[in-house]
Model the fold of this input.
Amino acid sequence: MTGREYPDRPWVGIGCIVFRGEHVLLVRRGKPPRIGQWSLPGGAQHLGETAEEAARRELREEAGIEVGPMALAIVVDSISRDEAGRALYHYTIIDFAAEWRSGEARAGDDVSEVAWTLPVDFAAFDLTEATHRAVAAARAALQRGAAAAT
Done:
């Protein structure tokens, strides 16, 4: 199996943008890559696990919460390069959108903090542009799902 640093193939990362009303769940990374940075909860998909199963597992492990139905929000490639231009990390991230259902968010597994925050307050968390796009895509995906259900 290939390592995460200098991989010979992209890793599949699964994330979930969770809404509780207008608030979005953010986590502070406790391990590389991007240790100490705020982002969306998620992690690597395990062999034999569906993408949705991976998203639900990561939410339980990282934040101790459960969500309702999930909708595909966005797919993003996250590539970090070293000084020589080689791919140090390469993740293809599949992000789902969901509404919080139960559990009190708490830091677990490989995160050091969790926060429910409004998108207007994202500046305090120094989120990547990709995270901003993912949250907007997630809100749109949930609205499409709600419109289709009516």
Observations:
- The two ends are 46 Å apart (CA to CA).
- The chain has a mean pLDDT of 94.
- The first strand starts at residue 11 and ends at 20.
